[in-house]
Amino acid sequence: MAGVVGTAHSCANPNTNVWNSRGIWISYIIVVLLLHFIILCIPVLTVEWCWTITNIVHSILMYLLMHSVKGTPFHTTDQGSSRFLTGWEQMDGEEQFTEARKFFLSASIVLYLLASFYTKYEYEHFQWNTAALLLSVLPKLPQFHRVRVFGINEY
Amino acid sequence: MERFFTLEVLKTIPYYHLCIELVLIYCIYWLYFSRPLRNQRRPELTPAEKQKLIDEWQPDPLVPVVEESRDRIVEHLPGSKIIVDRDECLDFGTFNFLALRKDDAVIGAGMKGIRDYGVGSCGPRGFYGTFDAHIYLEEEIANFLGVDEAILYSYGFSTIASAIPAYAKRGDLLFIDEQSNFAIQQGAKASRSKIHWYRHNDMEHLKELLDAQAECEAKNPRKAKVTRKIIIAEGICQNTGTIAQLKTMIDFKYKYKVRVFLDESNSFGVLGETGKGLTEHLNVDILDVDLISAETERAIPSIGGFCAGSAYVVDHQRLAGLGYCFSASLPPYLARAASTALKIIQNEPTRLCRLRANAKFFHKQLQIAVEHSHVFDLTGDDISPIKHLLLTHPNNNENLKAIQSFIQSAQSQGIALVSGEKLEQDRTCKNTSIRLTVSAAFSEDELSSCVSVLSGLIKKLSVSKSAI
């Protein structure tokens, strides 16, 4: 459909299936690991803080890219049906509990578990990590589909 | 580092942390055993309900029942006269405003075009369907109107019907005249936007709607920021022949921050000193109108249509106008014919004067004929070449019959008319009018003879009515 995408496919909105494309999950894991290694390279930080910062940066990026940006960058022929939906909500045509959704939701949780483990369950890190966890997990839950709490990001 | 690998650290987990982790692990478990779920699930039907639906189903006949045809057979190109069912009639049915349909120069250009290009373009504009004739015509229209750019469509109906959904999407607002033509209605429907219909040419009502909208927006400015608002009107309304009050709309445009789209299908090549349309007629800056669209099937005797405006606005349609992207482009010879017709409009302003004079003269005469008849009302402005004779007392069951018999008897007296008949899906569908189209080809005598025939028929009708 839209000429700008460059390839011929029958999908009206490429945002719906980008998270199922070949190699995207492994790329995602590699990017998160890379992020972690880059943070590890900063000399003043201890290993614990590196994990916590990885988790926080991951959550913030997730939130910005998947839960705050709306619509699509493509010329779609759907008359703007995705105009008011975030990237996460458009995933798999709004279907819930799909493979991609399960993967990305559990990835956030696993990252939290790892961060907790490597920070030796210290209370200060616990606070930061849990806040980051909520930021990336809550908006992904099916219960929050198309829900705009306190009108945040409503239009 | 050794502690990590012996998992010694696990013994130091505080209990709250352990709880959270267990909950999270349970979450992953729950997630993996949940089944994919569609948001709107179809309700499950019970067997009884299924059976009921099956019983209720009536198959359509393979061949639909066709009503007895009322089609009339036209035998040659319309000038001022036309041969309908072998009767020679004065042609008040065809949109032939400038009498260019039988023009030798236009036909010649088309014939030469066929020899140069063949008959079809073999593809949409984006895929091998662009010919020099298209580019020249687009340029000529843009230069003629004094705008940046024009874009050609291959069918008149799909021009505005594609242009509207290219800009208006879900969540947007359209303010549309109630009597707008079917193409506008379909475009508005396809856009999925919210539509506010304002009463025909009633600027007070439009103002009320805009005021109400402004009130809503004051309550929710964040929503207002992402809502596009567009007023859509016809230059000369096809269903009534009334001229739009563009000046007021332009005032509203700046007051309420809305956009204005104008369908000039019936006013392009008709209104204004040089035929540029309603903007010239009312002395409105053409750049104040966001988008002008027109069919080239009326004053210009070709096929297709165009949209014109600023390059920024028009270019959007080259990827987003569905009728432009996905249908084969206008046959190039038709573009040639349209170019020639446009040149004639520019070179022979007398045609426009004649059309205007004819329209005014005919309006005056018709008004006298219709006055106090209690059968028909005349609608439309005097300068508009489209007139409608509207039944004064419409009677749902009899409308069509009455109008058909009127047209039939007019035809036997040498006047070819058409009813303002519409599709059932058309929201303006009432089928209570007779449409008369004035052409520059008519002489005053011909117009007078038409009026005398009509007034005779009207008198007969009003006498028979009063007798009842």
- The rounded distance between the terminal residues' Cα atoms of chain B is 109 Å
Count of individual helical segments of chain B: 17
Beta-strand proportion of chain B? 5-15%
Low-pLDDT windows of residues of chain B: none
GO cellular component, one term (chain A): endoplasmic reticulum membrane
Pfam family, one (chain A): ORMDL
Transmembrane segments (chain A): 23-42
Keywords (chain A): Membrane, Transmembrane, Transmembrane helix
Q: In words, what does this structure look like?
A:
The complex is a heterodimer of chains A (155) and B (468). Chain A is mainly α. Chain A has a domain at 46-69 and 83-148. Chain A has helices at 24-40, 47-68, 87-90, 99-118, 123-137. Chain A is globular and about 50 Å long. Chain B is an alpha/beta fold and 468 residues long. Chain B has three domains: 2-27, no CATH class; 81-100 and 349-467, Aspartate Aminotransferase, domain 1 (Alpha-Beta Complex); 118-347, 3-Layer(aba) Sandwich (Aspartate Aminotransferase, domain 2), CATH 3.40.640.10. Chain B is built from 17 helices and 14 strands. In chain B, the strands form three sheets. In chain B, strands 3-9-8-7-6-4-5 form a seven-stranded mixed beta sheet, sandwiched between helices. Chain B has a four-stranded antiparallel beta sheet with strand order 10-11-14-13, with helices on one face. In chain B, strand 7 (259-263), helix 11 (278-281) and strand 8 form a beta-alpha-beta unit. In chain B, helix 4 (104-117) packs antiparallel against helix 14, helix 5 (132-145) packs parallel to helix 14 (332-347) and helix 15 packs parallel to helix 17. Chain B is globular and about 110 Å long. The relative contact order of chain B is 0.13. The model of chain B has no long low-confidence stretch (mean pLDDT 90). At the A-B interface, helix 4 and helix 5 of A face helix 2 and helix 9 of B.
